[in-house]
DNA sequence: CGGAATCCATATCGATACTG
DNA sequence: CAGTATCGATATGGATTCCG
């Protein structure tokens, strides 16, 4: 039996998992899969991310050794982001998970509908509670 | 080229990924790997989770078709939780990710130390800012 | 262009208390 | 035992503004 989630490092592993679960981190990793991208190009491709969050996400990924930040000292400034080998190695299990998610979205949707109709739709859509 | 993260379902997939990244959901799935567990037993094994969060996590996982909730109408009440086939199928890619996380924790730690010493430790430990 | 800083709304979560 | 309900602290994230 694998024991890499035993108490001692459980929190640490969980911490990494959370990064993967982070909405933007995964998208950034996906987008940078095979090419380096500039800040705003990355932002445009992801879509819906604020510049603040993209900055924060990139900083964290950079600190964790997932992405590489390269500044070209031009005018105007040009900054390129690319995956490091570590980042690329993360890409694979993430892709597997993405594949699973994509394949099972219908199952999840069906399960939700079944659950909601069994327990009352109003229970989950709790914005309908009156005064 | 796989396109399961194309714009249309990108958000949906991301949503599933977030569930995986959810601190407690993964731990619950791990704990329920091969056996059914009762509420408090599950809580004890996870450790550090409030009863509120365990309830919420289990409800969500149940709604998504990941876990099965079985109530034995005894006194006192006895409720058992177990993974559904869908939940078990999620276990595999999650395990792969957990394995990656465990293997690469040292790399991440080293990357962080390098980053911090390069950019100034005070920058990341920003609790030291004076009045 | 890329990013830092500030402000503010909301979401998340833990602690606590009460219930069938 | 297995929850539900409420409350308050904190984390998260968007919008905006300013700067090199």
TrEMBL record, chains A, B:
Note the InterPro entries from the entry. Answer: HTH_HxlR, WH-like_DNA-bd_sf, WH_DNA-bd_sf
Q: Which Gene3D superfamilies match?
A: Winged helix-like DNA-binding domain superfamily/Winged helix DNA-binding domain
Q: Which residues form the HTH hxlR-type domain?
A: 10-109
SUPFAM superfamilies in UniProt: Winged helix' DNA-binding domain
Q: Does the keyword Transcription regulation apply?
A: yes
UniProt keyword list:
DNA-binding, Transcription, Transcription regulation
Q: Is Transmembrane included in the keywords of this UniProt record? A: no
MF terms in GO? DNA binding
Please name the PROSITE patterns in this protein's record.
HTH_HXLR
**What PANTHER family does the database record attribute to this sequence?**
TRANSCRIPTIONAL REGULATOR, MARR FAMILY, TRANSCRIPTIONAL REGULATORY PROTEIN
State the name under which the record lists this protein.
Answer: DNA-binding HxlR family transcriptional regulator
Q: Which organism is it from?
A: Gellertiella hungarica
Q: What is the lineage of its organism?
A: Bacteria, Pseudomonadati, Pseudomonadota, Alphaproteobacteria, Hyphomicrobiales
């Amino acid at each position: 039996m694998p024991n890499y989630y035993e108490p001692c490092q459980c929190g640490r592993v969980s911490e990494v998992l959370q990064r993967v679960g982070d909405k933007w981190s995964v998208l950034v990793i996906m987008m940078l899969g095979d090419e380096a991208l500039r800040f705003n190009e990355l932002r445009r491709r992801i879509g819906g991310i604020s510049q603040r969050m993209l900055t924060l996400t990139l900083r964290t990924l950079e600190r964790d050794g997932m992405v590489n930040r390269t500044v070209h000292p031009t005018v105007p400034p040009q900054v390129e982001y690319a995956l490091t080998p570590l980042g690329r190695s993360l890409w694979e299990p993430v892709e597997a998970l993405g594949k699973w998610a994509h394949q099972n979205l219908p199952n999840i949707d069906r399960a939700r509908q079944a659950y909601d109709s069994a327990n009352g739709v109003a229970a989950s859509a709790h914005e309908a509670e009156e005064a």
